[in-house]
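Re: the 68-residue chain
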Amino acid sequence: MDKNIVIAIVLGALVLIAGVQAFQLFSLKNKVAQGSVGVNAQTQAGSSGGSPQLPSNLQNLPNMVGGC
C-alpha cells in the first residue's frame, strides 16, 4: 500500500473516534445539566442522614503512604 493511503486511513479513524467522543461528551453534558447523573457518595449520605463514609480500605490512607 502507498504511504499516503495508510496515513489517510489512520487520520480518518482518528477523526471518527474524535467525533464519537464529542458526541458522548455532549450527551454527558446534557445529562449533568438536567441533573440525571448521580454520585454514589451523595445518595449514601442522603439515605443515612449523615456524612458519607469512606470505604474501609481508604480510611487510613495517609498512614499507608507515609503521611504525617
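The helical segments are 3-34, 40-48, 61-64.
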